[in-house]
Please model this.
Amino acid sequence: MFGTHQTPSQAYARVGIETGVANAEPHKLILMLFEGAQVAIAAATHQMKDKRTAEKGQSISKAIDIITNGLRASLDPEAGGELTERLGALYDYMCLRLLHANLKNDAAALAEVAALLGEIKGAWEEIANDPAVVSQNKAAA
Model:
């Protein structure tokens, strides 16, 4: 009754995303998190240019939430060892840079985090395309 009003296209997109998440393999879910963070940062960049402070803050908060509660939370210290430690530190650094970007209206900090996310996402895409990983995912399904 008091929910936000959605257009049919917004509702369709939300259902599409929920369906994609429900049916996605673990590597695909991680890629979706990277994409979500990148979209939020791109939105924040435009909102910063347009001086829409509240929306910029919301977009940056969304990116931080995805990085912290999605990407960082998905790290497995037992399985990943030193790599997990380093990725965790990098995710922490990204969140600090996003906070800085929000406080100082620093578009370069947003671009820096977007580039870092792009590099890590590229590595995940390579892993997902590895025939051994594809076979392992099919066997687990």
In short: Confidence is low (pLDDT under 50) at residues 6-13, 137-141.
